[in-house]
C-alpha cells in the first residue's frame, strides 16, 4: 500500500492549522511555532519515505506462490519452507502412536515406568545401567520393562 501524499499532506496541514491556532492562543511566539512545524514536517516526510520504500512481506503461510510478495521472487533467500509434520522424539513418543487404546494404556503407567521404558528403547541403556542411574535394583527395572512389554504385546498382536 502506497502513501497518498496529497491526502496525507491535506490532513497534516488541517491538523497543523488547528495546532498553530491553539499555540497562538496560548501565547507562543511565531518562531517557536515554526520550529515545531518544521520538526513535525520532517517527521511527516520521514514517514512518507519509509512507507514508499518499505514493502510489507505478507504472511508466508499462503500455499499459492502467486499471492506472495514479489520480493520473494527477487530475493529467494528470504523464503523459508517448513515441513508440516509433527516430530516425535524422546519426550513425546507416546503421542506418536496411532492406536488410541495403546496410548491410553501407556498413559496408565507411572512417570517413572515411562522414563524407564524410554531409557531402554530410545537411549539403548541396559537394565543394569538404568538401575544405577535411577538408584534402584536391576530386578525392579526388569519388572517395569516387563509390565510395559505386557501392555505392548496385548496391542501388537
Helix content: 55-70%
Q: What is the C-alpha radius of gyration, as a whole number of Å?
A: 34 Å
The gross shape turns out to be elongated
Major β-sheet annotation: none
Distance between the termini: 62 Å
Beta-strand percentage? under 5%
State mean pLDDT (0 to 100 scale): 82
Q: pLDDT below 50 for ≥5 consecutive residues: which ranges?
A: none
Per DSSP, the total helix count is 7
Q: Tally of extended strands?
A: 0
Category from helices, strands and their pairing: mainly alpha
Order of helices and strands: HHHHHHH
Q: Please, how many domains?
A: 2
What can you tell me about this protein's structure?
The protein is mainly alpha-helical. The protein has 2 domains: 5-78, no CATH class; 93-155, Arc Repressor Mutant, subunit A, CATH 1.10.10. It is built from 7 helices and no strands. α4 packs antiparallel against α7. The two termini are 62 Å apart.
SSE topology sketch:
Elements: H1 5-25, H2 30-53, H3 70-74, H4 100-107, H5 111-121, H6 127-134, H7 138-155
Produce a short descriptive summary.
With 157 residues, this protein is mainly α.
Brief descriptors of the model:
single chain; 157 residues; mainly alpha; Arc Repressor Mutant, subunit A; 2 domains; 7 helices; 61% helix; elongated
